[in-house]
Amino acid sequence: MANVVIIGTQWGDEGKGKVVDLLTQKADCIVRFQGGNNAGHTLVVNGRKYIFHLIPSGILHPGKVCMIGNGVVLDPAVLIQEMDRLRDCGMPVTPERLVISRYTHVIMPYHRALDLAREGRKGAHRIGTTGRGIGPCYEDKVCRGGIRMHDLLHRKALREKLKRNLEEKNFLLERFFGEKPLDAASIEEEYLAYGERLSPYLDNVSMRLQDADRKGCNLLFEGAQGTHLDIDHGTYPFVTSSNTVAGNACCGAGIGPTRIHTVLGVVKAYTTRVGGGPFPSELKDETGEAMRERGGEFGATTGRPRRCGWLDMAVVNTSVRLNGLSGLIVTKLDVLTGIPSLKICVAYKCGNERIQAIPPELEAIEACEPICEEFPGWENDISRVRRFSDLPGNTVRYLKAVEELAGVPLYVVSVGPGREETIVLRHPFE
Ligand code: IMP
To answer: For this structure, is 41 an active site residue?
Structure first.
Protein backbone atom coordinates (compact mmCIF):
# COMPACT_ATOMS: atom_id res chain seq x y z
CA MET A 1 0.00 0.00 0.00
CA ALA A 2 1.25 3.48 -0.86
CA ASN A 3 -0.28 6.94 -1.11
CA VAL A 4 1.33 9.10 -3.77
CA VAL A 5 1.01 12.76 -4.74
CA ILE A 6 1.85 13.87 -8.28
CA ILE A 7 2.45 17.56 -8.94
CA GLY A 8 3.90 19.72 -11.71
CA THR A 9 7.30 21.27 -10.99
CA GLN A 10 7.08 24.11 -13.51
CA TRP A 11 4.19 26.33 -14.69
CA GLY A 12 1.73 23.55 -15.49
CA ASP A 13 1.29 21.51 -18.67
CA GLU A 14 4.14 19.17 -17.72
CA GLY A 15 2.27 16.14 -19.00
CA LYS A 16 0.80 15.11 -15.64
CA GLY A 17 -2.27 13.61 -17.30
CA LYS A 18 -0.27 10.91 -19.02
CA VAL A 19 1.72 10.17 -15.86
CA VAL A 20 -1.40 9.91 -13.73
CA ASP A 21 -2.95 7.68 -16.36
CA LEU A 22 0.10 5.42 -16.23
CA LEU A 23 0.27 5.20 -12.43
CA THR A 24 -3.49 4.70 -12.20
CA GLN A 25 -2.98 1.15 -13.44
CA LYS A 26 -1.69 0.31 -9.95
CA ALA A 27 -3.82 2.76 -7.95
CA ASP A 28 -7.29 2.18 -6.50
CA CYS A 29 -8.46 5.76 -6.02
CA ILE A 30 -7.44 8.87 -7.95
CA VAL A 31 -8.14 12.18 -6.25
CA ARG A 32 -8.13 15.79 -7.44
CA PHE A 33 -7.56 18.27 -4.64
CA GLN A 34 -7.33 21.79 -6.11
CA GLY A 35 -7.96 23.93 -9.18
CA GLY A 36 -10.90 23.51 -11.50
CA ASN A 37 -11.58 23.51 -15.20
CA ASN A 38 -8.68 25.89 -15.77
CA ALA A 39 -6.68 22.66 -15.98
CA GLY A 40 -6.70 20.46 -19.04
CA HIS A 41 -5.35 16.94 -19.40
CA THR A 42 -4.72 15.62 -22.87
CA LEU A 43 -4.50 11.85 -22.96
CA VAL A 44 -3.82 9.54 -25.86
CA VAL A 45 -5.24 6.08 -25.27
CA ASN A 46 -5.29 3.48 -28.07
CA GLY A 47 -4.50 6.30 -30.50
CA ARG A 48 -7.54 8.32 -29.47
CA LYS A 49 -7.17 11.79 -27.93
CA TYR A 50 -9.17 12.78 -24.85
CA ILE A 51 -9.18 16.17 -23.11
CA PHE A 52 -10.53 16.44 -19.58
CA HIS A 53 -10.75 19.50 -17.40
CA LEU A 54 -12.34 18.22 -14.23
CA ILE A 55 -12.75 14.46 -14.07
CA PRO A 56 -9.54 12.78 -12.91
CA SER A 57 -7.91 11.08 -15.87
CA GLY A 58 -8.12 7.78 -13.98
CA ILE A 59 -11.72 7.52 -15.16
CA LEU A 60 -10.46 5.80 -18.32
CA HIS A 61 -9.49 2.77 -16.20
CA PRO A 62 -12.45 0.54 -15.35
CA GLY A 63 -12.77 -0.32 -11.70
CA LYS A 64 -10.90 2.70 -10.33
CA VAL A 65 -12.63 5.24 -8.12
CA CYS A 66 -12.09 8.91 -8.99
CA MET A 67 -12.68 11.58 -6.39
CA ILE A 68 -13.04 15.36 -6.51
CA GLY A 69 -11.97 16.82 -3.19
CA ASN A 70 -13.21 19.85 -1.28
CA GLY A 71 -10.21 21.90 -2.48
CA VAL A 72 -11.42 21.86 -6.09
CA VAL A 73 -13.73 24.55 -7.49
CA LEU A 74 -16.30 22.86 -9.66
CA ASP A 75 -18.30 24.11 -12.63
CA PRO A 76 -21.18 21.58 -12.70
CA ALA A 77 -22.04 22.27 -16.35
CA VAL A 78 -18.50 21.36 -17.41
CA LEU A 79 -18.45 18.24 -15.27
CA ILE A 80 -21.79 17.05 -16.66
CA GLN A 81 -20.56 17.69 -20.20
CA GLU A 82 -17.47 15.53 -19.54
CA MET A 83 -19.61 12.79 -18.02
CA ASP A 84 -21.93 12.85 -21.03
CA ARG A 85 -19.01 12.71 -23.46
CA LEU A 86 -17.62 9.68 -21.66
CA ARG A 87 -21.03 7.99 -21.68
CA ASP A 88 -21.27 8.59 -25.43
CA CYS A 89 -17.84 6.92 -25.82
CA GLY A 90 -19.22 3.85 -24.02
CA MET A 91 -17.66 4.68 -20.63
CA PRO A 92 -20.56 5.65 -18.36
CA VAL A 93 -19.53 7.50 -15.18
CA THR A 94 -21.47 5.91 -12.33
CA PRO A 95 -21.50 7.00 -8.65
CA GLU A 96 -19.36 3.91 -7.96
CA ARG A 97 -16.66 5.44 -10.18
CA LEU A 98 -16.91 9.14 -9.30
CA VAL A 99 -17.26 10.69 -5.87
CA ILE A 100 -17.59 14.46 -5.41
CA SER A 101 -17.07 16.12 -2.06
CA ARG A 102 -20.20 17.72 -0.65
CA TYR A 103 -17.95 20.60 0.40
CA THR A 104 -16.50 21.42 -3.01
CA HIS A 105 -17.21 25.03 -3.93
CA VAL A 106 -19.33 25.68 -7.00
CA ILE A 107 -18.31 28.04 -9.80
CA MET A 108 -21.32 30.27 -10.45
CA PRO A 109 -22.09 32.40 -13.54
CA TYR A 110 -21.09 35.56 -11.65
CA HIS A 111 -17.64 34.09 -10.99
CA ARG A 112 -17.04 33.68 -14.71
CA ALA A 113 -18.46 37.13 -15.46
CA LEU A 114 -16.28 38.80 -12.83
CA ASP A 115 -13.15 36.88 -13.90
CA LEU A 116 -13.51 38.13 -17.48
CA ALA A 117 -14.57 41.67 -16.56
CA ARG A 118 -11.69 42.09 -14.14
CA GLU A 119 -9.10 40.70 -16.54
CA GLY A 120 -10.46 43.00 -19.26
CA ARG A 121 -9.77 46.05 -17.11
CA LYS A 122 -6.19 45.05 -16.33
CA GLY A 123 -4.82 45.97 -19.75
CA ALA A 124 -1.06 45.48 -19.81
CA HIS A 125 -1.14 43.93 -16.31
CA ARG A 126 -3.28 41.05 -17.51
CA ILE A 127 -2.51 37.71 -15.82
CA GLY A 128 -3.80 35.67 -18.71
CA THR A 129 -6.47 33.93 -16.65
CA THR A 130 -8.37 31.16 -18.39
CA GLY A 131 -11.55 33.11 -17.54
CA ARG A 132 -13.31 30.11 -16.05
CA GLY A 133 -14.23 31.89 -12.80
CA ILE A 134 -11.62 30.06 -10.73
CA GLY A 135 -10.24 33.11 -8.87
CA PRO A 136 -13.61 34.68 -7.96
CA CYS A 137 -14.89 31.30 -6.74
CA TYR A 138 -11.92 30.89 -4.39
CA GLU A 139 -12.45 34.51 -3.26
CA ASP A 140 -16.00 33.65 -2.18
CA LYS A 141 -14.75 30.54 -0.43
CA VAL A 142 -12.31 32.58 1.62
CA CYS A 143 -14.77 35.40 2.36
CA ARG A 144 -17.24 32.71 3.49
CA GLY A 145 -19.89 33.55 0.97
CA GLY A 146 -19.35 30.56 -1.30
CA ILE A 147 -21.90 28.02 -2.49
CA ARG A 148 -20.90 24.38 -2.00
CA MET A 149 -22.11 21.29 -3.78
CA HIS A 150 -24.50 20.29 -0.97
CA ASP A 151 -26.15 23.72 -1.21
CA LEU A 152 -27.44 22.74 -4.64
CA LEU A 153 -29.71 20.20 -2.96
CA HIS A 154 -31.71 22.73 -0.94
CA ARG A 155 -33.83 25.28 -2.78
CA LYS A 156 -34.43 27.59 0.18
CA ALA A 157 -30.80 27.74 1.28
CA LEU A 158 -29.59 28.19 -2.28
CA ARG A 159 -32.08 31.00 -2.90
CA GLU A 160 -30.92 32.89 0.18
CA LYS A 161 -27.27 32.52 -0.65
CA LEU A 162 -27.83 33.51 -4.25
CA LYS A 163 -29.76 36.60 -3.19
CA ARG A 164 -26.99 37.74 -0.88
CA ASN A 165 -24.28 37.06 -3.43
CA LEU A 166 -26.06 38.61 -6.38
CA GLU A 167 -26.76 41.84 -4.52
CA GLU A 168 -23.05 42.40 -4.30
CA LYS A 169 -21.96 40.81 -7.61
CA ASN A 170 -24.56 42.60 -9.69
CA PHE A 171 -23.58 45.89 -8.10
CA LEU A 172 -19.98 45.22 -9.12
CA LEU A 173 -20.87 43.94 -12.58
CA GLU A 174 -23.20 46.82 -13.42
CA ARG A 175 -21.80 49.78 -11.56
CA PHE A 176 -18.11 49.06 -11.60
CA PHE A 177 -17.53 47.00 -14.74
CA GLY A 178 -20.44 48.25 -16.84
CA GLU A 179 -21.65 44.70 -17.54
CA LYS A 180 -25.14 43.21 -17.56
CA PRO A 181 -26.59 42.03 -14.20
CA LEU A 182 -27.44 38.34 -13.71
CA ASP A 183 -30.85 36.92 -12.90
CA ALA A 184 -31.23 35.04 -9.61
CA ALA A 185 -34.29 32.98 -10.57
CA SER A 186 -32.79 31.43 -13.71
CA ILE A 187 -29.52 30.65 -11.89
CA GLU A 188 -31.50 29.01 -9.09
CA GLU A 189 -33.34 26.74 -11.50
CA GLU A 190 -30.22 25.87 -13.49
CA TYR A 191 -28.14 25.02 -10.43
CA LEU A 192 -30.88 23.05 -8.66
CA ALA A 193 -31.05 20.90 -11.78
CA TYR A 194 -27.27 20.35 -11.59
CA GLY A 195 -27.68 19.44 -7.91
CA GLU A 196 -30.34 16.89 -8.75
CA ARG A 197 -28.25 15.32 -11.48
CA LEU A 198 -25.07 15.18 -9.36
CA SER A 199 -26.58 14.30 -5.96
CA PRO A 200 -25.88 10.53 -6.29
CA TYR A 201 -22.19 11.38 -6.62
CA LEU A 202 -21.91 13.57 -3.51
CA ASP A 203 -20.27 12.19 -0.40
CA ASN A 204 -17.68 12.92 2.27
CA VAL A 205 -14.42 12.39 0.35
CA SER A 206 -12.29 12.60 3.47
CA MET A 207 -14.18 9.69 5.06
CA ARG A 208 -14.11 7.69 1.85
CA LEU A 209 -10.36 8.15 1.70
CA GLN A 210 -9.92 7.04 5.30
CA ASP A 211 -11.92 3.89 4.57
CA ALA A 212 -9.92 3.17 1.43
CA ASP A 213 -6.63 3.83 3.22
CA ARG A 214 -7.58 1.48 6.08
CA LYS A 215 -8.41 -1.23 3.57
CA GLY A 216 -4.88 -0.93 2.14
CA CYS A 217 -5.85 0.73 -1.15
CA ASN A 218 -3.29 2.70 -3.17
CA LEU A 219 -4.30 6.37 -3.31
CA LEU A 220 -3.08 8.69 -6.04
CA PHE A 221 -3.47 12.45 -5.60
CA GLU A 222 -3.41 14.35 -8.87
CA GLY A 223 -2.25 17.97 -8.76
CA ALA A 224 -3.38 20.47 -11.39
CA GLN A 225 -1.31 23.39 -12.77
CA GLY A 226 2.28 23.57 -11.48
CA THR A 227 4.27 24.57 -8.42
CA HIS A 228 5.18 28.01 -9.79
CA LEU A 229 1.51 28.87 -10.29
CA ASP A 230 0.93 28.34 -6.55
CA ILE A 231 -0.92 31.28 -4.96
CA ASP A 232 1.66 31.53 -2.14
CA HIS A 233 4.89 30.22 -3.61
CA GLY A 234 4.51 30.98 -7.33
CA THR A 235 5.44 34.01 -9.39
CA TYR A 236 2.72 36.16 -7.78
CA PRO A 237 0.54 37.77 -9.14
CA PHE A 238 1.01 35.65 -12.28
CA VAL A 239 -0.36 32.58 -10.56
CA THR A 240 -3.58 30.65 -10.18
CA SER A 241 -5.80 31.03 -7.11
CA SER A 242 -5.09 27.78 -5.28
CA ASN A 243 -2.14 26.13 -3.58
CA THR A 244 -0.71 23.82 -6.19
CA VAL A 245 2.05 22.40 -3.98
CA ALA A 246 1.91 18.83 -2.67
CA GLY A 247 1.00 19.88 0.89
CA ASN A 248 -2.39 21.00 -0.35
CA ALA A 249 -3.30 17.42 -1.23
CA CYS A 250 -3.97 17.05 2.49
CA CYS A 251 -6.21 20.14 2.87
CA GLY A 252 -7.89 19.76 -0.49
CA ALA A 253 -8.87 16.13 -0.01
CA GLY A 254 -9.12 15.82 3.77
CA ILE A 255 -6.26 13.44 4.51
CA GLY A 256 -3.51 13.88 7.11
CA PRO A 257 0.13 14.43 6.06
CA THR A 258 1.32 11.22 7.75
CA ARG A 259 -0.78 9.25 5.24
CA ILE A 260 1.26 10.48 2.25
CA HIS A 261 4.25 8.29 1.43
CA THR A 262 5.69 9.55 -1.85
CA VAL A 263 5.62 12.87 -3.70
CA LEU A 264 6.65 12.87 -7.34
CA GLY A 265 7.34 15.97 -9.40
CA VAL A 266 6.65 15.97 -13.13
CA VAL A 267 9.34 17.82 -15.10
CA LYS A 268 8.91 18.56 -18.78
CA ALA A 269 12.33 18.13 -20.49
CA TYR A 270 12.12 21.83 -21.40
CA THR A 271 10.00 24.63 -19.91
CA THR A 272 6.69 26.15 -20.99
CA ARG A 273 4.38 28.78 -19.63
CA VAL A 274 0.96 29.92 -20.81
CA GLY A 275 -0.30 33.37 -19.90
CA GLY A 276 1.75 36.27 -18.52
CA GLY A 277 4.55 36.32 -15.96
CA PRO A 278 8.30 35.91 -15.66
CA PHE A 279 10.10 33.11 -17.51
CA PRO A 280 13.90 33.46 -17.26
CA SER A 281 14.87 30.67 -19.68
CA GLU A 282 12.31 31.61 -22.37
CA LEU A 283 13.41 31.24 -26.00
CA LYS A 284 11.90 33.72 -28.41
CA ASP A 285 13.78 32.24 -31.37
CA GLU A 286 13.41 29.35 -33.79
CA THR A 287 14.43 26.77 -31.15
CA GLY A 288 11.50 27.90 -28.96
CA GLU A 289 9.30 27.78 -32.04
CA ALA A 290 10.49 24.23 -32.84
CA MET A 291 9.68 23.12 -29.26
CA ARG A 292 6.18 24.60 -29.56
CA GLU A 293 5.48 22.93 -32.89
CA ARG A 294 6.97 19.53 -32.06
CA GLY A 295 5.65 19.45 -28.52
CA GLY A 296 2.16 20.59 -29.59
CA GLU A 297 2.50 23.38 -27.04
CA PHE A 298 -0.92 24.94 -27.33
CA GLY A 299 -3.13 25.23 -24.23
CA ALA A 300 -5.52 22.30 -23.69
CA THR A 301 -8.04 24.67 -22.11
CA THR A 302 -7.76 27.88 -24.13
CA GLY A 303 -5.77 26.80 -27.22
CA ARG A 304 -3.28 29.63 -26.62
CA PRO A 305 0.29 29.03 -27.84
CA ARG A 306 2.56 28.26 -24.91
CA ARG A 307 5.80 30.14 -24.40
CA CYS A 308 8.78 27.72 -24.60
CA GLY A 309 12.34 27.72 -23.24
CA TRP A 310 15.21 25.60 -21.94
CA LEU A 311 14.83 23.40 -18.91
CA ASP A 312 15.35 25.58 -15.85
CA MET A 313 16.71 23.65 -12.88
CA ALA A 314 16.45 26.68 -10.57
CA VAL A 315 12.70 26.35 -11.13
CA VAL A 316 12.77 22.57 -10.63
CA ASN A 317 15.00 22.76 -7.55
CA THR A 318 12.64 25.22 -5.94
CA SER A 319 9.91 22.65 -6.52
CA VAL A 320 12.04 19.93 -4.93
CA ARG A 321 12.13 22.11 -1.80
CA LEU A 322 8.50 23.31 -1.78
CA ASN A 323 7.04 19.85 -2.34
CA GLY A 324 9.60 17.69 -0.53
CA LEU A 325 9.89 15.68 -3.72
CA SER A 326 10.81 12.00 -3.44
CA GLY A 327 11.68 11.85 -7.12
CA LEU A 328 11.16 13.10 -10.66
CA ILE A 329 9.21 12.05 -13.70
CA VAL A 330 10.66 13.56 -16.88
CA THR A 331 8.20 14.00 -19.75
CA LYS A 332 8.29 14.91 -23.45
CA LEU A 333 11.97 14.04 -23.78
CA ASP A 334 11.35 13.00 -27.40
CA VAL A 335 10.53 16.63 -28.29
CA LEU A 336 14.23 17.49 -27.85
CA THR A 337 15.38 14.85 -30.38
CA GLY A 338 17.24 16.45 -33.26
CA ILE A 339 18.18 19.70 -31.53
CA PRO A 340 21.97 19.61 -32.03
CA SER A 341 22.93 21.34 -28.80
CA LEU A 342 20.78 21.55 -25.67
CA LYS A 343 21.01 23.91 -22.74
CA ILE A 344 19.96 23.55 -19.14
CA CYS A 345 19.70 26.61 -16.92
CA VAL A 346 21.57 25.46 -13.80
CA ALA A 347 21.41 28.66 -11.75
CA TYR A 348 20.91 32.44 -12.04
CA LYS A 349 23.37 35.28 -11.82
CA CYS A 350 21.76 37.92 -9.67
CA GLY A 351 24.16 40.86 -9.33
CA ASN A 352 27.34 39.27 -8.01
CA GLU A 353 25.49 36.33 -6.56
CA ARG A 354 24.84 32.90 -8.02
CA ILE A 355 21.51 31.50 -6.87
CA GLN A 356 20.00 28.09 -7.46
CA ALA A 357 16.37 28.83 -6.70
CA ILE A 358 13.86 31.10 -8.42
CA PRO A 359 13.12 34.05 -6.12
CA PRO A 360 9.42 34.65 -5.43
CA GLU A 361 9.47 38.43 -6.10
CA LEU A 362 8.98 39.63 -9.67
CA GLU A 363 11.60 42.38 -9.30
CA ALA A 364 14.20 39.86 -8.13
CA ILE A 365 13.41 37.48 -11.00
CA GLU A 366 13.80 40.30 -13.50
CA ALA A 367 17.30 40.92 -12.17
CA CYS A 368 18.24 37.25 -12.72
CA GLU A 369 20.25 36.11 -15.69
CA PRO A 370 20.14 32.40 -16.47
CA ILE A 371 23.47 30.54 -16.26
CA CYS A 372 23.26 27.72 -18.78
CA GLU A 373 25.31 24.58 -19.36
CA GLU A 374 25.43 23.04 -22.79
CA PHE A 375 24.78 19.38 -23.56
CA PRO A 376 25.19 17.61 -26.90
CA GLY A 377 21.86 16.56 -28.39
CA TRP A 378 20.85 13.21 -29.95
CA GLU A 379 19.53 12.33 -33.39
CA ASN A 380 18.07 8.86 -32.86
CA ASP A 381 14.34 8.39 -32.38
CA ILE A 382 13.94 7.55 -28.68
CA SER A 383 10.18 7.00 -28.71
CA ARG A 384 10.59 3.23 -29.12
CA VAL A 385 13.07 2.86 -26.26
CA ARG A 386 11.67 1.10 -23.19
CA ARG A 387 14.84 0.56 -21.12
CA PHE A 388 17.01 3.33 -19.71
CA SER A 389 20.17 1.52 -20.79
CA ASP A 390 18.97 1.55 -24.43
CA LEU A 391 18.82 5.35 -24.60
CA PRO A 392 21.52 7.14 -26.63
CA GLY A 393 24.56 8.19 -24.56
CA ASN A 394 23.78 11.90 -24.89
CA THR A 395 20.18 11.38 -23.72
CA VAL A 396 21.48 9.53 -20.65
CA ARG A 397 23.94 12.37 -20.01
CA TYR A 398 21.10 14.92 -20.15
CA LEU A 399 18.93 12.91 -17.76
CA LYS A 400 21.79 12.22 -15.35
CA ALA A 401 22.50 15.97 -15.22
CA VAL A 402 18.84 16.63 -14.32
CA GLU A 403 18.92 13.97 -11.61
CA GLU A 404 22.18 15.28 -10.19
CA LEU A 405 21.11 18.93 -10.24
CA ALA A 406 17.79 18.11 -8.54
CA GLY A 407 19.38 15.79 -5.97
CA VAL A 408 16.47 13.33 -6.16
CA PRO A 409 16.14 10.17 -8.27
CA LEU A 410 14.37 9.66 -11.56
CA TYR A 411 11.30 7.43 -11.38
CA VAL A 412 9.89 7.56 -14.89
CA VAL A 413 10.88 8.98 -18.29
CA SER A 414 8.24 9.62 -20.95
CA VAL A 415 9.41 9.42 -24.56
CA GLY A 416 6.10 9.93 -26.37
CA PRO A 417 2.43 10.72 -25.76
CA GLY A 418 1.17 7.11 -25.75
CA ARG A 419 0.74 5.12 -22.53
CA GLU A 420 3.37 2.60 -23.65
CA GLU A 421 5.98 5.20 -24.66
CA THR A 422 7.47 5.17 -21.21
CA ILE A 423 10.59 4.03 -19.36
CA VAL A 424 9.93 3.09 -15.74
CA LEU A 425 13.01 3.10 -13.49
CA ARG A 426 11.14 2.98 -10.15
CA HIS A 427 7.43 2.56 -9.55
CA PRO A 428 5.94 4.38 -6.55
CA PHE A 429 3.35 1.63 -6.04
CA GLU A 430 5.82 -1.26 -6.17
P1 IMP B 1 -6.63 31.08 -13.76
O2 IMP B 1 -6.23 29.95 -12.88
O3 IMP B 1 -7.58 30.68 -14.86
O4 IMP B 1 -7.11 32.27 -13.01
O5 IMP B 1 -5.31 31.58 -14.56
C6 IMP B 1 -4.21 32.15 -13.85
C7 IMP B 1 -2.91 31.82 -14.55
O8 IMP B 1 -2.63 30.43 -14.41
C9 IMP B 1 -2.89 32.09 -16.06
O10 IMP B 1 -1.58 32.50 -16.43
C11 IMP B 1 -3.20 30.74 -16.66
O12 IMP B 1 -2.70 30.63 -17.98
C13 IMP B 1 -2.47 29.83 -15.69
N14 IMP B 1 -3.06 28.50 -15.63
C15 IMP B 1 -4.19 28.12 -15.04
N16 IMP B 1 -4.41 26.80 -15.18
C17 IMP B 1 -3.37 26.33 -15.88
C18 IMP B 1 -2.99 25.01 -16.31
O19 IMP B 1 -3.65 23.99 -16.07
N20 IMP B 1 -1.83 24.93 -17.02
C21 IMP B 1 -1.05 26.01 -17.26
N22 IMP B 1 -1.35 27.24 -16.86
C23 IMP B 1 -2.50 27.41 -16.17
So the answer is: yes
Cross-strand partners of 348? 355, 370
Q: How confident is the model at residue 174 (pLDDT cuts 50, 70, 90)?
A: very high
How large a percentage of the chain has pLDDT more than 70? 99
Q: How many domains does the chain have?
A: 3
Which residues are bridge partners to 372 per DSSP? 345
Q: Which range marks the domain in which residue 417 is found?
A: 267-424
* Euclidean distance between CA atoms 318 and 355, whole angstroms: 11
Tens-digit pLDDT profile for residues 384-401? 999 999 999 999 999 999
Ligand 1 contact via 130 beta carbon (within 6 Å): yes
* DSSP state string for 376-412: E---S--TT--SGGGS-HHHHHHHHHHHHHHTS-EEE
Distance 240 CA to ligand 1 centre (A): 6
Peptide bond into 237 cis (omega under 30): yes
Position 91 confidence tier, pLDDT thresholds 50, 70, 90: confident
Quote the pLDDT of residue 45: 64
Question: Is the separation of the CB atoms in 279 and 307 below 8 Å?
Answer: yes
Classify residue 429: in a domain, yes or no: no
Collapse the DSSP code of 15 into the 3-class scheme (helix H, G, I; strand E, B; otherwise coil) and give the result: coil
State how far the Cα of 222 lies from the Cα of 234, in Å rounded to an integer.
Answer: 18
Across the range 214-239, mean pLDDT stands at 97
430 lies in some domain: no
Ligand 1: which of 20, 53, 112, 229 to mutate, most ligand atoms within 8 Å of CB?
Answer: 229
Residue-by-residue DSSP string for 262-273: EEEEEEESSEEE
Average pLDDT of the segment spanning 58-63: 88
pTM of the model: 0.95
* CA 293 – ligand 1 centroid, Å: 21
Q: How many residues does the chain have?
A: 430
Residues 359 and 420 in one domain: yes
pLDDT bin (cut points 50, 70, 90) of residue 90 is confident
- Tell me phi and psi for residue 342, to 5 degrees: -110, 150
Tell me, yes or no, whether 216 lies in a domain.
Answer: yes
Parallel, antiparallel, or unpaired for β 105-106 and 29-32? unpaired
Residue 330 pLDDT > 80: yes
Ligand 1 pocket check for 29: Cβ under 6 Å: no
User: Does residue 381 carry a catalytic annotation?
Assistant: no
Which helix (DSSP H) or strand (DSSP E) does residue 86 occupy? Answer: helix 76-88
Query: Which helix (H) or strand (E) segment is 372 a member of?
Result: strand 368-376
